[in-house]
Structure formats: C-alpha cells, structure tokens
Amino acid sequence: MKKKKLHPIVENINKIVKDRKMSKMAFADLIGLPESKWNKISNGAQELSLWELSKIAEVLQMPLQNVISYPDK
Q1: Which pTM value belongs to this model?
Q2: Average pLDDT rounded to a whole number, residues 19-25
C-alpha cells in the first residue's frame, strides 16, 4: 500500500508533537483518538477531518491558525 504525501497541516502537527516531546501514543490519548487512527493520519494513510483538527487545536491550547502555520505565527 502506497503512503500518501503528508498534508502540510499534518506535518505541522507532527512537528508540534515532536517539539513538545510527546509520543504518538500520548498524543493520540490526549486528543481522544485510538493510537492506530492517529498513526494512519500522521503517516498520511488517512485524512484528518476538520473536526479532528479543531479538537487538536483546542487540546493543544493553540489557536487554529497557529496550528496551520506552525512554527510561524
């Protein structure tokens, strides 16, 4: 199965997770997704929904636009 190219926003979320020194499992738990689903999203095998993106920004306590433009503000 060929992996899709990562969406720039997913790349940004992966950078945030790395910069905050969180494991994928800890992040998945924090945002309320099964680890298997987050792995698929973070690896480009599954698309991130707008609802999931909104929840991620809320849990990270970051404005949505900062998640989208990370690391720039």
Answers
A1: 0.89
A2: 95
